[in-house]
Design brief:
By secondary structure, the protein is an alpha/beta fold. Helix content is about 40%, strand content about 15%.
Amino acid sequence: MPDRAAPRRAPMRIALTAESFLPYVSGVTVSVDALARGLGARGHEVLVIAPRPSAGTAPMAVGSPGPEPRYAWLPSYQLPRLTPPGYRMPWPVPLATAWREARAWRPEIVHAHSPFVTGVFARRLARATGSPLVFTHHTRFADYGHYLGPLAGPGARLTDAYLRSFWAGCAAVLAPSSDLADEIRARLPADRQGRVHVVPTGIDVAGIRALAPVDPRPAAGWPAGAVVVATLGRLAAEKSVDVVLDAVARVPDARLVVIGGGALEARLRERAARADLAGRVHLTGALPRMEALAVLRGADLFAFASRTETQGLVLAEALAAGLPAVAVEGPGVADSVRGGIDGRIVAAEPAASRAERLAVAIGEMVGDADLRGRMAERAAADGGRFALEARIGQVEVVYAAVAG
């Protein structure tokens, strides 16, 4: 992908709907904010329709360049369980105020980022205004079935049927990785498969490179020459951070900084205190996004074991920051990590020995400074392939095609 913006297109009015939004930070909320600001920087008018933040809070900048979009807020609530603090959900009730505002604004494109409450709102808005409906599929919902307990099986079947119907009603479906695009095409009728496009989320490569690295060694009490492996993301079961800890436990010369917070933080701290890792793991807790990326820049190597991604945005961020990556094979990984060039991809199966294989790859990188350096140079030199400007250009092409 070229590291330059696509030719400018005529300004459009674009409505983006999201099931969650800032100030809650996730791959989805960062993606929607980056798209909204990136489109605004290209001259488009953007309206973000999302759950209202909790009282006393507001969307904050998370590093995406471009003007702040206009907002139409939906009534929201926080589940007492299941969802992280700050994650607001829209009420599944008639949303009169936001509906009137969005319809009066008359968008030329309606772009949904969830198929559920706000996806239904988007579909209704598109029909009412005669606008094409575009959808970005951000989440592998089947991978979150463990939160539903005994309802996981029926829930998965109902969700799959609903998704097929929702995709089929869209003028275009955007998938952040080629793996996911193939999966969606395989579940659609033949005459709908051409509507699926691969458009990864772009990142502000220049902004990440401009961050001053924050060395995690002093805070962790590690020597200046220690080789530091980093992992970044929400600490939840589906992110498989425990696999990274188990892998680093097998590499005595490695130190690990775990950047992020979440429901499993206490359990991971207990794991880090065991004899095979004691003194070699530092958990930062939840950090503002730009602070987290600055700590990431202070590490030597990135490790990634999540199996539930549609893209793995943190992989692109790590590579753009100049860190070679060691990742478990999974959805979207091969779209970011180029095995043997800027990292290593290890097989996911058999699952019982996954941590061992990850440890071998990490150990190779930790023990070979020349290899690590060469891969870091390639990661940094080729970071432009993730540039937000190029991704916005791809989205504009899709908008122009469905609008025409």
